[in-house]
Amino acid sequence: MENFMTERRYEAQDIEPKWQARWEKDHLFKVAEDPKKKKFYLLEMLPYPSGLIHMGHVRNYVIGDVAARYKMAQGFNVLHPMGWDAFGLPAENAAIERGIQPAKWTYNNIDYMRSQLKKLGISYDWDREFATCDPSYYRWEQLIFLKMYERGLAYKKTSLVNWCPGCQTVLANEQVENGFCWRCSSQVKQEMMSQWFFKITEYAEELLNDIDDKLEGWPERVRIMQREWIGKSKGSSIKFPLLCKEGEGEVDTALPHLNPPPAYAKATAGRLTKGRNYIEIFTTRPDTLFGATFMSLACEHPMVRELAKGTEHEKAVQKFIERTAKIDRATRLAGTYDKDGVFVGAHCINPVTGSKIPVYAANFVLMEYGTGAVMAVPAHDQRDFEFAKKYNLPIKVVIQPKEHHLDSKTMTQAYEGEGTLVNSGAFDGLWSVDAIEKITAHLNKKGIGGPTVSFKLKDWCLSRQRYWGAPIPIIYCEKCGTVPVSEKDLPVVLPQDVEFTGKGGSPLAKVESFINVKCPNCNGKARRETDTMDTFVESSWYMFRYASPHFEKGPVDKKAIDYWLPVDQYIGGIEHAVGHLIYCRFFTKVMRDLEMIALDEPVLNLMTQGMVIKDGSKMSKSKGNIVTCDDMVKKYGADTVRLFSLFAAPPEKDLDWNDQGIEGMHRFLLRVWRFVMNWLETPQSSPSPQGGEGRGEGEPALQRMTHKAIKKVTEDIERYHFNTAIAAIMEFVNYLYQTGAEAVSRQAIETLIIILSPFAPHVAEELCGLTGKTTSILKQSWPVFDPQLIVEDTMQIVIQVNGKLRDQITIPVDANEDEIKSKAQGAEKVVQHIEGRQIKKIIYVPKKLVNIVV
Ligand code: ANZ
Ligand code: ZN
Predict the structure, then answer these.
(1) In principle, which of 154, 191, 215, 444 could form an S-S bond with 450, CB 3.0–4.6 Å?
(2) Same domain flag for 278 and 164
(3) Which of 455, 480, 502 lies at the terminal end of a domain, its last residue?
(4) For the segment 387-428, what is each residue's pLDDT rounded down to a tens digit?
(5) Do 162 and 271 fall within a single domain?
(6) Across-strand partners of 554?
(7) Is residue 406 situated within a structural domain?
(8) How far does residue 574's CA lie from ligand 1's centre (Å)?
(9) Stretch 157-168: mean pLDDT
């Protein structure tokens, strides 16, 4: 190589755009199905096009890019796509605030963000890019919706939903965080509304079971969160007969055990009402049934109003409902606030004791869980205990613990543990755990109860009263009622040029040309649904669309799915643990059952990366601590930015942004550059006439270090420990400097360049060219280390006891002092001299001797 090379400086601003253009021109990241090659599908969660790429994004995509480039070097056919989760509120808010149409705002942002990502040199197959707000994408989502509607998996119902006053829309449970809106942090209210739901509960059991069987490659933390969110409880349901008001109704014979009803005859002042004559409860402790002394209902339970109606309690009940409905779901679930309740003016019967027990509405009972009704056992449930104390209700002990004796008059808290049944008729003396089964069987035989399971998971409310989303393909006809749009009429396209005022409900509801349609059934007058779908619907199946993004005969091309799916490695934030990551599992199972794909789970391995924080908090506009990708790339170049976002912390941990760190990374790249430049001036850099390799493989020590570096970097990339992989490259560079360019082999230099390439691909590509390669670094294979070459050098250590030479040991050169000392004490001839004597001191003279003083 000519001498002027030494003069050449490292100029990221020149190198990077050059190679980015080359990679694109040569289609190096474009992939197609190739049955002869092993595939690897690497996916980062698709971004929302907010208009800004900050370091949080950068970290996410760079982590993915290192893995993708490493897999390519290993010979995999790597699918690494990118797209945009393009529907959602910010676009609409921009329209309201700035009068710019959401579509325009969104596509402008996408263009800008795409250019930023390209400047980072990430290995995307851009031919597969799509935005979910494009009709060519959401038409298929509408088709999936129709198929789900056909099967009853999409349905409309009136129920309590989460209403965000800030966003002016309904939210799914997964979008409410501790009672606040996930997006705008407003306090969420509970409202009765008619909304569209996906029947995710139909898949609750399978979603739960597959966590154990099919998600071994997911972080345990996420698996636990999903299990808890699904929240399966095994228990029993029990019917408690209601007493009618004095003089009304008669005993209903639908409950066989009540006819004749001897056990409670004495307790019944009135008789049982006909019709809906019982309250059904869900309990995990049927063994405590004999201790149920009152009944607690959720304030939204329909029986609360019904029972109170016309009684002197009606007003108080109404007031209670009003103050309780204000408490959000999360607070009620936590149950740590003061117990509050009201007598609804009615009684029911404990079906096994026959005693008459009062019915209360209580603030700690949730309508959406179990049946919305709880049999209260104050002696054995702490919430019931506190409630009973407050309202002076009877406490009856039915479980006696082994260790001490419970007395209902003196106990200061509920006993919730196991024990022996007492005051429980024929079941006395049974151990509580056995009684659960026995009592449930008894209730089952009598037709008043039985085993059941309850899930915390609720159906997914997908209606949004907002404009910028995929229209729900439904039509309401005056005559035919709810009619699905016919498949041939898809997509239902979102109208453009809509007026945004930010007031008075969904903008779509005011677009006459959109709303007014003919009924597909009878051709009569009809109206379109104006709700749009939750944006989490788009992200529930986008990973499938990437496999065949231009397919026009359906949502997915099955052949492409069979080759590319499942996603081998998915990378994204932990905040999606129970929202997105449950929804996409649900959609996978639904699409499987619709025979669109043959797959049970979408993602084999999941990695959740930490956040990028600055000055102690997460980067956000409101905090004003955003570091943009653009500024950093301009100043240091993409390779430096990439290295820093990987080096500063392991991927799962939060990364604290600091400017010294990035400077350090830049200096490291300069160091690599300078070394290679120096080496290029040495004789061994020029290939020998025979095409041989300069000085071959170099001295054994150099060889060992080279192979050690390969081993460490390979293993660390495999474990996603990118920070330590980079540290190993730094160590290797230090070693090369110590060795001196004159003594460094071509093999060592080429190894350095390739192991650096996933992290800093542009500089690696440039250096690769400068060292004489004519093909892209992307076409070169990942080096394999030779275990034989890594074997450590050893050294001889002399061992003395009280200053007299006794033995010698052989030990690796990098063994630490503790290892050496303990090995010394165990040496054969040493043992003879120290046995039975107390060791006072062990002196170690590095690399020479150990003296044991006894
Ligand atoms: C009687 C009983 C006696 C209970 C006892 C516990 C101890 P998990 O394990 O979470 O499923 N429960 C049922 N439905 C409820 C609702 N909608 N809102 C609030 N609490 C509800 O909890 C099941 C237990 O939670 C049930 O068992 C019920 O109280 C209560 F000594 O029934 B238990
Ligand atoms: Zn009709």
Answers:
(1) 444
(2) no
(3) 455
(4) 999 999 999 999 999 999 999 999 999 999 999 999 999 999
(5) no
(6) none
(7) yes
(8) 30
(9) 85
Distance 281 CA to ligand 1 centre (A): 9
Dihedral angle computed from the Cα positions of residues 261, 265, 270 and 276, in that order, rounded to the nearest 10 degrees: -20
Cβ of 283 less than 6 Å from ligand 1: yes
Same domain? 468 vs 424: no
Query: Is residue 487 in some structural domain?
Result: yes
Q: How many CB atoms lie within 10 A of CB 323?
A: 12
The total number of structural domains that make up the chain:
3
515 CA distance to ligand 2 middle (Å) = 15
Measured between alpha carbons, how far is 362 from 327 in angstroms, rounded to an integer? 12
Check if 295 has its Cβ closer than 6 Å to any atom of ligand 1.
no
Give the other-Cβ count within 10 Å of 796's Cβ.
Answer: 11
CA distance 354 to 267: 7
The residue whose two tokens read 């200096």 is 667
Distance CA 826, CA 832 (A): 10
Q: Chain-wide mean pLDDT for the chain?
A: 89
d(CA 575, CA 763): 34
In this structure, the residue with its CA closest to atom 32 of ligand 1 is 283
Sheet holding 77-79, edge to edge: 77-79, 39-44, 567-573, 603-609
Residue 255 lies in a domain: yes
Q: Which spans in 326-431 are helix H? A: 329-334, 382-391
Which residue's C-alpha comes closest to atom 27 of ligand 1? 283
CATH number of the domain that residue 802 is part of: 3.10.20.590
Q: Specify whether 392 is located in the same domain as 506.
A: no
Print the domain residue range for 842.
794-853
Q: Does 450 lie in the same domain as 463?
A: no
Look at the block and give the residue holding tokens 């009615």.
346
Report if residue 315 sits inside a domain. yes
Same domain, 436 and 487: no
Quote the strand ranges of 478-625, DSSP E.
481-484, 516-518, 525-528, 532-533, 567-573, 603-609, 612-614, 617-618
Q: Which pLDDT band, with edges at 50, 70 and 90, does 187 fall under?
A: confident
Ligand 1 pocket test, pick from 381, 415, 455 with the greatest ligand atom count within 8 Å of Cβ, gives: 381
CB 374 near ligand 1, within 6 Å: yes
Instruction: Find the range with the poorest average confidence among 63-67, 109-113, 224-228, 277-281.
Output: 277-281
Q: Which residue has the tokens 């501790």?
A: 178
Label residues 386-408 b or e (16+ Cβ within 10 Å = b): bbbeebebebbbbbbeeeeebeb
> How far is Cα 360 from Cα 299, in angstroms, rounded to an integer?
9
| E strand spans, 473-514 | 474-477, 481-484
Q: Are residues 291 and 429 in the same domain?
A: yes
CATH of the domain at 280: 3.90.740.10
- The ligand that comes nearest to the alpha carbon of residue 286 is 1
Q: Which of 516, 533, 550 is the last residue of a domain?
A: 533
Q: Which two tokens stand for residue 388?
A: 């009973």
pTM: 0.84
How many whole angstroms separate alpha carbon 65 and alpha carbon 79?
A: 11
**Hunting for tokens 């091309």 — which residue is that?**
557
Rg (CA), the chain: 35
Q: Are residues 419 and 308 in the same domain?
A: yes
Atom of ligand 1 nearest to the CA of 372: 17
Q: How far is CA 363 from CA 132, 341, 671, in A?
A: 42, 6, 66
